[in-house]
Write a structure and sequence with these properties.
about 325 residues, UDP-N-acetylmuramoyl-L-alanine:D-glutamate ligase, ten-stranded mixed beta sheet, four-stranded mixed beta sheet, alpha/beta
Length: about 325
C-alpha cells in the first residue's frame, strides 16, 4: 500500500534545563517539540516514508509553532486541528554521572486531552492508510483520550488497517485519574498487529510474572503475549543496562510467532539526550518491517536508530538510511 502511516497522539513542547543543570537553577530553558507518536512520525518521515499526524493543538503561537516544526521534518499535519485549550508541556532536567534525569509533566487540560467525542472521524482519517500507530500515553491522559484511542483502534481493525502499538506505560499519568490501565491496554494490544513492549509490559496486562533470565525471559513473555492476543504478529523491545546517566548498554529484540532475534549489547557512552530513544527504536523497526525485513533486520535497524538518537538533542530521530548504514558498518571517523 502506498498510503500514509497515521500517528495519533498529543503533540508536546519540551522545556529543558541547559546542559546538566537542575530545573530553575538558571533562568533559561531550551525548547524542543515532540510527543511519543510524533517522534516516530518524524523518524519515519526522515527515512522517506509518507507520515500523517492526527492530533489537536491550541490556536495560539505555541500550537502554530509546534505544527511548523513537525511539518518541517516532512510530516503531513493536515489532520491536526486547532481548538481552545492549552499546549501540553513537560520539563526535563538531564542527569549526569550517578544522577538520573527527571521529568515534570504539565499537560492537564490540554487541547488534545479535552478533545470532544466527535473530534475525530476515523473512517475518513483511516481511508487509504498503510498503518496506524498509537501509544499507551494517549489513553493514560484521561477517560476522553482513552476512548479516542480505543475508537481509533476499533476503526482500524474494522477497516483492515494494521495497528502498531507502543505500550509506553506512564504510571504518573494513569495514577492521576480513576483509570484501569490493565483493561484498557489489554483491549488495545488485543487489536494490534505489532507491539512495542517488553516482559514488564506483558506482565502488567497478563497479570503474571516471567521466571526466566535475559533472552529466555523475553521469549517466554513473547510466547505468552502471542497466546493471549491471537492477532499479534510481532513484538519488539530493547534491553537497557544503565551504568551511569551517560553510559548505557543496549540490545534490541524482535519476536515473531515462529522465532526471534536479539542483538548483542552496544555500549552507548557520552549520551547527549536519551529522551525519545524508544520512539527512535520503533521508527527503525517499522522502517525495516515495511521494507519486508526479517527479525534480524528489524532488530538491527531499531538498535541503530535508538543508539544514534542518544547523540542528538531533542525528542525525535532525524537520521536517514545512510546514517543507519554507517552505524552498522561501525565507522566512527569523520564522514567526508
Amino acid at each position: 500500500m502506498a498510503g500514509p502511516i497515521l500517528f495519533f497522539g498529543e503533540l508536546l513542547i519540551r522545556l529543558t534545563a541547559p546542559g546538566n543543570e537542575l530545573l530553575m537553577q538558571s533562568p533559561t530553558l531550551n525548547l524542543h517539540v515532540g510527543g511519543a507518536e510524533a517522534n516516530v512520525a518524524i523518524g519515519l518521515a526522515r527515512l522517506g516514508h509518507a507520515t500523517r499526524m492526527v492530533s489537536v493543538v491550541p490556536d495560539n503561537a505555541l500550537g502554530r509553532g509546534t505544527l511548523s516544526t513537525v511539518r518541517s521534518h516532512g510530516v503531513d499535519c493536515s489532520a491536526v486541528s486547532q481548538a481552545p485549550g492549552r499546549m501540553g508541556l513537560y520539563f526535563l532536567q538531564v542527569g549526569a554521572g550517578l544522577r538520573s534525569s527527571e521529568i515534570v509533566y504539565d499537560r492537564a487540560g490540554s487541547s488534545f486531552a479535552q478533545a470532544g467525542a466527535d473530534a475525530f472521524d476515523w473512517d475518513s482519517l483511516l481511508a487509504g492508510a498503510r498503518l496506524l500507530h498509537l501509544s499507551g500515553i494517549t489513553p493514560a491522559l484521561g477517560p476522553q483520550s482513552a476512548e479516542h484511542a480505543l475508537a481509533a483502534a476499533r476503526a482500524a481493525r474494522r477497516l483492515g488497517v494494521p495497528l502498531s502499538f507502543d505500550g509506553n506505560y506512564r504510571a504518573l499519568l494513569w495514577d492521576a485519574w480513576n483509570s484501569d490501565p490493565r483493561a484498557i491496554l489489554s483491549e488495545l494490544i488485543g487489536m494490534a498487529d505489532i507491539l512495542f513492549g517488553n516482559h514488564r509490559d506483558l506482565s502488567l496486562v497478563l497479570g503474571r510474572q516471567f521466571s526466566g533470565e535475559g533472552e529466555d525471559r523475553r521469549r517466554e513473555a513473547a510466547e505468552a503475549g502471542f497466546a493471549a492476543f491471537p492477532d499479534l504478529k510481532l513484538i519488539a523491545s530493547t534491553a537497557r543496562h544503565t551504568v551511569s546517566a551517560d553510559h548505557h548498554r543496549i540490545a534490541a529484540r524482535v519476536d515473531l510467532r515462529d522465532g526471534g532475534y536479539q542483538t548483542s549489547e552496544t555500549e552507548v557512552t557520552g549520551i547527549v539526550d536519551r529522551i525519545g530513544a524508544g520512539d527512535a527504536f520503533a521508527a527503525g523497526v517499522l522502517h525495516a518491517h515495511l521494507g519486508g525485513g526479517d527479525a534480524k533486520t528489524m532488530a538491527e535497524s531499531g538498535l541503530a536508530l535508538t543508539c544514534l538518537k542518544h547523540s542528538l538533542p531533542g525528542d525525535a530521530s532525524l537520521f536517514g538510511q545512510g546514517d543507519i548504514d554507517a552505524f552498522m558498518a561501525g565507522g566512527l571517523d569523520v564522514r567526508r
